[in-house]
Design a protein that fits this description.
Blueprint lengths: L2 H4 L4 H17 L35 H37 L1 H16 L2 H11 L4 H28 L2 H8 L4 H37 L11 H8 L8 H50 L21 E11 L2 E12 L3 E5 L6 H8 L8 E8 L2 E4 L3 H8 L3 E4 L3 H4 L6 H8 L12 H8 L11 H18 L4 H4 L8 H14 L4 E5 L7 H18 L2 E6 L2 H7 L2 E6 L2 E7 H6 L4 H9 L7 H4 L16 H10 L2 E10 L9 E9 L3 E5 L6 H9 L6 E8 L2 E3 L6 E4 L13 H12 L7 H7 L16 H13 L5 E5 L7 H18 L2 E6 L2 H7 L2 E6 L2 E7 H6 L4 H8 L3 H5 L4 H7 L13
Parallel strand pairs: 3-8, 3-9, 6-7, 7-8, 13-18, 13-19, 16-17, 17-18
Antiparallel strand pairs: 1-2, 1-4, 4-5, 9-10, 11-12, 11-14, 14-15, 19-20
Helix pairs in contact: 2-3, 2-10, 3-4, 3-6, 3-8, 4-6, 5-6, 6-8, 8-9, 8-10, 9-10, 14-16, 14-18, 15-16, 16-18, 18-19, 26-28, 32-34
Length: about 900
C-alpha cells in the first residue's frame, strides 16, 4: 500500500481543497462575466427572492453576482503576495543560509528591520499616500510578508548545510550554484510551499481589511472586503449583503490555513511513508527466512513466566501497520531488580515493541496486547490507557539524548520538569536550606508557597543529577554545552526524577565511546541495584547485552526467535539467526590476513610480521601520501584546543585506524584532512610523486557516520552517483552501474530514493558515491557505528574488498576497538586532541603502552574480551601503567 493511501486526507481537508479550487477558479474568470446590477433598482435593498437568491445590497447590486465577481479582486492580490513572498524568501534566504558571511548579515538586518515595522499601520499609510492603488498595496504587502519566508528558508538552509549530504558536495567540488539549485532547493521548497498556503490566508485577510477601510480598491468595486463595508449599512434589511462576503473571507482563509497545516504534515510524513513501505517489504521478506518455534528456549508457553511481583510484564504485544504486522505476539517480563535485554538487527521491531508497551507507538500504527507495570494493567489498543499506566511508573531513555532534551533549557531545569507535578516540599523541608541547595536567594515569605516549591524542585533536581555523577556546574549548562555521555546522564536523571520503577533504555550507548558507554551502563546497574529498578535494555550489541542482562530476547522480523538466560543463550545459541548474530560480532583478535595492503605479500606484509622500520620504509616507498603536520585547531569559545600539534601520515594502500573517546578530536582531524574545515595552524597536504599539493576530489573522500542523513533525500541513487562521477572526472569510463556492482547492490536500486533503502544499503550507496571520483584515500568517520552487527560485518567486508580491488588507502575512525581491529593494520590513539599512542594494530591491542589505551581496552565488554582467549588482555589492560606517559608514538 502506498504512502499516499495511508496518509489519505481527512474529510475536512478534502472540503478545504474543494473550497480553495473553487475560489481560485472564480478568481480566474475575467471581469464582466458576472453581472451584479441587473433588474434591481439602484439604491434599493431587497431580501432574497426569485432570480436573486441572496437579494441586493444598499446600492441595489445583486449580492450573489457581486460575491462571485468579487472573488477575482479578493484573491488575485493575495495569490500574488504569497507567490512574491515565497520567491523573495527563496532568492534571499537560501543563499544567505548556505553561504553565511556578509550576505547573511545583510539579509538578517533586512529581516529584523522589516519585522520591527508596524505592518498594518504602514500599509494603511502607504496605501493612503498612493491613492489607494491596488497593486501598490500588493507590492507593499509582498515586502512585509517576505521576511517570514526569508527566516524560514534561511533557517532550513542553515540546518541542511551542516548535514553530511551537503558536505559531501563540497568534497566533490561542486559549484555553489549547483549545490543551491540541485541539493538545497529541493529540500527547502517543501517549507516554502507550505508557507505559501499559510501566507495566502493571511494575505486574504490583510487585503480584505484594507479594502474594508477603503484602501486598495475603488469605491463600488467588486471585492469581498469592500462588499463587507458596503453591506454594513443594510445589515438589518438584508443580512446576506454583509454576512456572505464575510463568510467567503473566513471560509477561503481557513481552507488555506488547513491546507498549509496538512501539507506540512504530509511532507514531513512523506519520507517516513516511503521508508515504512520499504520496511514492510523487508519485514515480510525476513519473516519468510525466519524459522521460529522449535528453536525457542524455555517452555512452549512463555506467558507462564509473566507474573513478576513488581516491574514490567507484557503479553501478546502486536503492532500492525498498513504493510502488515511489524511486531507479532511478543511476550516479555522484566521483574524488579532485573535487566532484560532485547537484541536484534535494525528493523527487527525492538524499538516498536518498547514504544508500544509505553503507549508511544506512531499514530499510523495500531498496537494490541496487555501490559502490566507494578499493580496496574492496561490494554495496549488504547494509547491513552497505556500512557496513563506508564506515566510515573515507566520511563524511556532514548538513543540520542540531544534530540530528547530541550535545547533552550538548562539541565537542572529539565530534570526539575520531570518531577511529579503533584509532589511538593515535605513539611520538614527548611526554606533557607532549600534556597541554599537550589542556589536561589531566600525569599521573605516562609511556609510552603510557590517560591519554596520551586526551590525544593530545583534542589531535588540537583540531587538527581548528583546521583548520576553531574556536579552543579554541569547542571547549569545547556545540552549543546554537554558531551554525549553527560547528556545521557541528564536523560537518566530526568528518568529517575519521575520516580519510575521501570526504565526502558533504547540503544542508550550506541553513539558513545567504550569508556563513556561503560560509565553509563555501570550507572544504570548501580541505580537498578539501589532502587530496585526493572530495566528493559534494547541494543544490537550482543557483547553488551550478554554482559549486562539477566534474561535476553532475540528478535527478528517482529518475532522472538530465542529467549532465556543471557549467558546460556550466547554460550550455545540454538536458533540459526542467533548463531549468525554471534558470528558477525567483531572480536578484538586481529585478523592479519584481512589487513594486508593491496598488492602486498600475503605473508611478509602482515602487520604482525612487519616491524616499525619496515612500516616507515613502506610509507616512504609509496607514490602518494596524505600528510598532516603540526595541526592545531581551536573552536571559538573553547578552553582547550580540539587538536594540538597533531601529525599523521597515510600511505598508499595503507589502512590506519583512529580511535579515542568522544571529544578526543577524531572527527575534527578527519574534517581537516578532507578539507571540510580550514586549517588554522599546521598544514595538510597530498603528496603525489614527491610533489605536495592540496588534496582534491580525486585524492580524498569521506564517508560520514549517519547513513540516514548522508544522502540527499530528494535525489535518486542513480542521480547521486552520476553526480559524483561527473565531479571526479578521473575515470570517465566508470558508470553508476559499475559503482553499484562495486558495493554489492542491485542495479535496480538506482531508481530508488534514500527513504526506500535500509541503513546498511544507504551506507553502501554513500561508499559508492565516495568512490565516484576514484579517490586514492577513503576516510570512514564512524561509518559503521549506527549499524547492527550483521550489516556492520558486511560493510567491513566490503571495505576490505575495495582495498584489494582498487588499491585504496583507508583511514578508519571509530570508538569501537573490535571493529577497528578487523580492518586496519596500523592504529593511532587520540585523547584530548593529541596522539598518545600509535603502532601496528596487533601490537597496540596486545601490548598497549599508554595508560589511556589500556583504559579503552578495560572498558570493552567482558564477553568480547573473552573471545578467542583475550581475557588476559583485558585484565592486563586494567593494570597501572609501566611505560612512560608518552607511550609508543611511532
Amino acid at each position: 500500500m502506498s504512502g499516499a493511501r495511508r496518509a489519505r486526507p481527512r474529510p475536512l481537508i478534502v472540503v478545504s481543497a474543494a473550497v480553495m479550487v473553487a475560489a481560485l477558479a472564480l478568481a480566474a474568470i475575467p471581469d464582466g462575466v458576472f453581472d451584479f446590477s441587473q433588474d434591481i433598482a439602484l439604491g434599493s435593498v431587497a431580501p432574497g427572492g426569485a432570480g436573486h437568491p441572496l437579494g441586493s445590497d444598499a446600492l441595489g447590486r445583486d449580492v450573489l453576482g457581486l460575491t462571485l465577481a468579487g472573488a477575482r479582486s479578493a484573491l488575485i492580490g493575495p495569490v500574488a503576495i504569497a507567490l512574491g513572498s515565497m520567491l523573495i524568501g527563496l532568492l534571499l534566504g537560501l543563499p544567505a543560509g548556505y553561504l553565511g558571511g556578509w550576505l547573511d548579515a545583510v539579509v538578517s538586518r533586512y529581516v529584523e528591520l522589516t519585522l520591527s515595522l508596524p505592518s498594518l499601520l504602514l500599509a494603511i499609510v502607504v496605501a493612503g499616500v498612493s491613492g489607494g492603488s491596488y497593486w501598490v498595496t500588493v507590492a507593499l504587502l509582498v515586502v512585509l510578508f517576505s521576511p517570514w519566508d526569508i527566516r524560514l528558508v534561511r533557517a532550513a538552509a542553515r540546518q541542511q548545510r551542516s548535514l553530511p549530504y551537503v558536505e559531501a558536495t563540497r568534497l566533490l567540488g561542486l559549484s555553489r550554484r549547483r549545490v543551491l539549485a540541485r541539493h538545497l532547493l529541493p529540500n527547502v521548497r517543501s517549507i516554502a510551499l507550505t508557507n505559501l498556503f499559510l501566507n495566502l490566508g493571511y494575505a486574504l485577510v490583510s487585503m480584505s481589511s484594507l479594502s474594508f477601510l477603503g484602501l486598495g480598491v475603488q469605491p463600488g468595486a467588486a471585492d469581498w472586503g469592500r462588499q463587507l463595508a458596503d453591506g454594513r449599512t443594510c445589515l438589518y434589511q438584508n443580512p446576506a449583503a454583509c454576512l456572505v462576503p464575510a463568510a467567503a473571507i473566513v471560509l477561503v482563509a481557513s481552507a488555506a490555513n488547513l491546507l498549509g497545516d496538512w501539507l506540512e504534515r504530509r511532507l514531513a510524513l512523506g519520507v517516513g511513508a516511503q521508508a515504512h513501505d520499504a520496511a514492510g517489504a523487508l519485514s515480510r521478506r525476513r519473516r519468510r527466512l525466519a524459522r521460529p518455534g522449535s528453536a525457542r528456549r524455555g517452555k512452549p508457553d512463555a506467558r507462564a513466566a509473566l507474573a513478576p511481583a513488581d516491574g514490567l510484564a507484557a503479553s501478546a504485544v502486536r503492532v500492525r501497520g498498513a504493510a502488515g504486522e511489524i511486531v507479532r505476539s511478543v511476550d516479555l517480563a522484566a521483574p524488579k531488580g532485573a535487566t532484560v535485554g532485547v537484541v536484534g538487527e535494525s528493523g527487527s521491531g525492538k524499538t516498536l515493541l518498547a514504544r508500544a508497551i509505553l503507549g508511544l507507538a506512531p499514530e499510523n500504527l495500531a498496537a494490541s496486547g496487555e501490559v502490566r507495570i507494578g499493580d496496574g494493567r492496561a490494554d495496549l489498543a488504547s494509547r491513552r490507557a497505556a500512557r496513563k499506566l506508564a506515566g510515573g511508573r515507566a520511563v524511556l531513555v532514548p538513543q540520542d539524548p540531544f534530540t530528547s532534551l530541550a535545547p533552550t533549557r538548562r539541565a537542572v531545569d529539565q530534570v526539575a520538569d520531570s518531577l511529579p507535578r503533584d509532589e511538593g516540599p515535605p513539611r520538614w523541608f527548611e526554606r533557607g536550606k532549600a534556597a541554599r541547595l537550589a542556589e536561589l536567594p531566600p525569599q521573605a515569605d516562609g511556609g510552603r508557597g510557590s517560591a519554596s516549591r520551586r526551590a525544593w524542585r530545583r534542589a531535588e533536581a540537583l540531587a538527581r543529577l548528583a546521583e548520576v555523577g553531574l556536579d552543579p556546574e554541569a547542571a547549569r549548562r545547556y545540552p549543546h554545552q554537554l558531551s554525549g555521555g553527560m547528556r545521557q546522564r541528564v536523560a537518566i536523571a530526568a528518568a529517575l526524577a519521575t520516580r519510575a520503577g521501570v526504565v526502558v533504555a533504547d540503544e542508550p550507548t550506541t553513539a558513545l565511546d567504550v569508556t563513556t558507554q561503560r560509565e553509563i551502563l555501570d550507572l544504570l546497574g548501580r541505580l537498578r541495584a539501589s532502587r530496585g529498578l526493572a530495566v528493559l535494555l534494547i541494543s544490537h550489541d550482543l557483547a553488551l547485552i550478554q554482559e549486562r542482562s539477566d534474561q535476553v530476547l532475540v528478535m527478528r522480523a517482529g518475532e522472538v526467535l530465542e529467549r532465556g538466560p543471557a549467558a546460556a543463550v550466547f554460550a550455545a545459541p540454538s536458533h540459526p539467526y542467533t548463531q549468525a548474530l554471534k558470528a558477525a560480532t567483531p572480536s578484538l583478535a586481529v585478523r592479519p590476513g584481512d589487513q594486508a595492503p593491496p598488492g602486498g605479500d600475503p605473508a611478509g606484509d602482515r602487520p604482525d610480521g612487519r616491524s616499525a622500520a619496515n612500516q616507515a620504509a613502506a610509507l616512504a616507498a609509496g607514490r602518494h601520501q596524505l600528510r598532516a603536520v603540526g595541526l592545531t585547531h581551536r573552536f571559538a569559545g573553547a578552553a582547550s584546543p580540539a587538536l594540538a600539534e597533531v601529525g599523521l601520515t597515510i600511505g598508499e594502500g595503507e589502512s590506519v585506524g583512529l580511535v579515542g573517546e568522544s571529544g578526543s578530536g577524531k572527527t575534527t582531524l578527519a574534517r581537516l584532512l578532507a578539507g571540510l574545515e580550514p586549517v588554522q595552524s599546521g598544514r595538510v597536504e597530498f603528496v603525489a610523486d614527491g610533489l605536495a599539493r592540496r588534496a582534491g576530489p580525486g585524492d580524498v573522500q569521506l564517508v560520514f557516520q549517519d547513513p540516514y542523513s548522508t544522502l540527499n533525500p530528494s535525489l535518486s541513487v542513480g542521480a547521486t552517483l552520476r553526480e559524483a562521477l561527473g565531479a571526479g572526472g578521473a575515470n570517465p569510463t566508470r558508470t553508476a552501474e559499475d559503482l553499484m556492482d562495486l558495493v554489492g547492490l542491485p542495479r535496480s536500486y538506482l531508481v530508488r530514493r534514500p527513504a526506500q533503502l535500509s541503513g546498511g544499503e544507504r551506507q553502501r550507496v554513500a561508499i559508492a558515491r565516495a568512490l565516484g571520483p576514484a579517490p586514492k584515500i577513503l576516510i570512514c568517520d564512524e561509518a559503521t557505528s549506527a549499524l547492527d552487527v550483521t550489516v556492520q560485518a558486511r560493510v567491513l567486508d566490503l571495505l576490505a574488498d575495495l582495498r584489494r580491488q582498487l588499491g585504496l588507502a583507508l583511514l578508519f575512525i571509530s570508538h569501537n576497538l573490535a571493529v577497528t581491529a578487523q580492518v586496519t593494520e596500523r592504529l593511532v590513539v587520540m585523547r584530548h586532541g593529541r596522539l598518545v599512542e600509535s603502532g601496528l594494530t596487533a601490537e597496540v591491542l596486545t601490548a598497549p603502552s599508554h595508560p589511556y589505551t589500556r583504559a579503552l581496552l578495560a572498558a570493552v565488554p567482558a564477553p568480547l574480551a573473552a573471545a578467542e582467549g583475550l581475557e588476559d588482555l583485558k585484565t592486563e589492560a586494567a593494570k597501572p601503567a609501566t611505560a612512560p606517559a608518552g607511550g609508543r608514538n611511532g
